[in-house]
Amino acid sequence: MKALLLIGGFGTRLRPLTFSKSKPCIEFINKPILLYQIEALKKVGVVRIILAVGNIPEDFRTTVEEWRNTYNIDIVFSVEETPMGTAGPLALAADLLNEDLPGEKNPDVVFMFNSDILCEFPLQPLLEYHLSHGHEGTLMTTPVEDPSRFGVIVSREDGSIDAFIEKPKEYVGNHINAGLYCLNRSVVNYVPEAVKTSIERETFPHMANLRQLYSFPLDGFWMDVGKPDDFIDGAQTMMEYLDDLGHLHLPISPHALVSGLVDVSESAEVSPGAALGPNVVVGENVIIGPHARLKNCCIMAGSTIGAGAVVDHSIVGWGSTVHQWARVKNSVLGEDVRVHPELDVVGCKVMPHVEVKGDIRDEVVLY
Ligand code: GDD
Ligand code: MG
């Protein structure tokens, strides 16, 4: 089995974080976003993962090299000179998909994911269902309140897809394409040329007409962490899931006060009297000063939160310092930002390497 991950775009909505790190490498609950997908694919038995990208930033290349070694899995880039959309990458990677690898099980099966999606990745049941119906494609579906921003799927009773309507203008249903597919590699034949093609607007509607497309309901949560608010709120959902599995880390002194779910890196130092939670993620080598108050926030590796400082509903980028008694709320700080003592930073995005010397509110701070 192989996989193709669609990694287009520049992660603009996660700026200023994506000025310092590629989106797939940004840590979500202390693990790079893309690694959730890669670990799930490894677990189900995928032996080659193709990353469909427009370019390869240096940090991404290095990180992928590490994953390749750690997970002992063939991870290769398929680079598009011009954007190929969501189906063109299948044609571009046809040779990589068609090659049979030593010891590969189900060589005809290709998992294909939108890279901006996180869930429990129940890939084994998806695979079993896909093999059981014997047709060319299976899409995972999830119900949402506002389906207009997604691809909507109308299925028949036997699970076959009657219609696939991308970004419908009128209500046709609320079961949407979750962006996770299990396909036979023959699907490449529907995209004969490596040109910009939409899998949602062209390939899937065509396959549905041929009755080759089936749907499979996704169990558990489903989220997109591409925007700061979703990133922060999504952390709570993901931590609930990880907590059920006993996978959250809390190696801190009994003097710190913890409420709700938190994940603290082993190498972080949390001072006595600091209060964490709910929904707090503390990265590697972070220092939390005495009586600091953190809730609904993510503190990236190497940052320092001073004594009595407050961080609420915010993301603090790598190596930043929020000095004592400062208050950071509803904000995203880039890498290496310094907030001077006692200041208020509210509703702001602060670019990397900025020194904040006065109170700021509802601003994008460039320097
Ligand atoms: N390699 C590559 N090249 N990837 C691309 C390109 C491209 O030209 N264009 C988009 N992608 C990637 C994006 O990075 C993302 O991972 C995925 O393809 C889907 O593109 P989005 O731009 O995120 O689409 P969307 O969120 O509006 O809609 C898609 O996702 C929904 C679920 O979140 C569709 O697949 C919908 O049907 C679906 O419901
Ligand atoms: Mg998307």
Automatic annotation (TrEMBL):
One of the record's GO molecular function terms: mannose-1-phosphate guanylyltransferase (GTP) activity
Annotated EC: 2.7.7.13
Keywords: Transferase
This protein's pathway: Nucleotide-sugar biosynthesis; GDP-alpha-D-mannose biosynthesis; GDP-alpha-D-mannose from alpha-D-mannose 1-phosphate (GTP route): step 1/1
One matching Pfam family: GMPPB_C
Residue intervals of the Mannose-1-phosphate guanyltransferase C-terminal domain: 260-362
Residues in Nucleotidyl transferase domain copies: 2-237
Gene3D superfamilies cross-referenced by the UniProt entry: Hexapeptide repeat proteins, Spore Coat Polysaccharide Biosynthesis Protein SpsA, Chain A
InterPro entries hit by this protein: GMPPB_C, Mannose-1P_guanyltransferase, NTP_transferase_dom, Nucleotide-diphossugar_trans
Family assignment from sequence similarity: Belongs to the transferase hexapeptide repeat family.
Protein name: mannose-1-phosphate guanylyltransferase
The species this protein was found in: Carpediemonas membranifera
